[in-house]
């Protein structure tokens, strides 16, 4: 009698996971993240903050001098290149607060404690801040804002000022919508079998949230402080060439930046944990399904 075939079915290696399997994978990853040591979480959070900042920097470049394009086309292009940030996070390996809101699935299944969940979120969030601000410092020091005859600086200031001026309830709604799309991108990555698959499922949701003008707290940790740095410390020649002054950006203050990031964080938490994580947990993982 021959030995049983122990080779995996090739189809299982190439077929994308289905949503019930994706839910289980998401839950398992949440357990791994919750039990990772604190220093690793912090460092991976710093990396993610920098990666999302790179996406913000890229989209700022693309929007600079795009006035000749239809508004929607320019926004679409900005969204496509901003996808670089989440691609680096997922493929390169990093911890992003907004994506990690899906860890609520592991908590809902009693696989991790509330203390472990909050510990991971706090460490990753703090790391995201550090990575974002470090990138702001480096990009500002590079004189990047002066490129294109100051076009990049003008665009960065306009982006930051408009975000800083958003009223609370509008900002909250924009942030909820944003992280629904971000977490759907992360969710679909659990079904992907290759790097190519992951890139392809990341780009459309991320491009959509940027094109639509939704609010992402970690992206804003770069975009808003970068705009403020230009406002406060740009070389006088930048203002001379731009024909503008710091007074043109009255909404861009530290208080408004902190308000934006705080409200965006709350909205992102609601959108990712409740509208994506809890919904998929209820559909695929709630205990009554396994009785």
Coarse morphology: elongated
Mean pLDDT metric: 94
Question: What characterizes the major β-sheet?
Answer: none
The strand count comes to 0
**Could you give the distance between the termini?**
39 Å
Strand content: under 5%
Q: According to CATH, what is the class?
A: Mainly Alpha
Report the CATH topology name: Glycerol uptake facilitator protein
Gyration radius, in Å: 21 Å
**Assigned CATH architecture:** Up-down Bundle
Q: Approximately how much helix is present in the residues?
A: over 70%
Low-confidence stretches: 1-8
- The class by helix and strand makeup works out as mainly alpha
Number of domains: 1
Number of helices: 14
SSE topology string: HHHHHHHHHHHHHH
The CATH superfamily label reads Glycerol uptake facilitator protein
What does this structure look like?
- Helices cover 74% and strands 0% of the residues.
- By secondary structure, the protein is mostly helical.
- It has one domain (17-286): Glycerol uptake facilitator protein.
- The model is unreliable at 1-8 (pLDDT under 50).
Quick rundown:
The protein has 291 residues and is mostly helical. The protein has 14 helices and no strands.
Core attributes:
291 residues, mainly alpha, Glycerol uptake facilitator protein, 0% strand, elongated
Helix and strand arrangement:
Layout: H1 10-14, H2 19-34, H3 38-63, H4 71-82, H5 84-92, H6 97-100, H7 104-108, H8 114-141, H9 151-164, H10 168-189, H11 195-212, H12 217-233, H13 236-242, H14 254-284
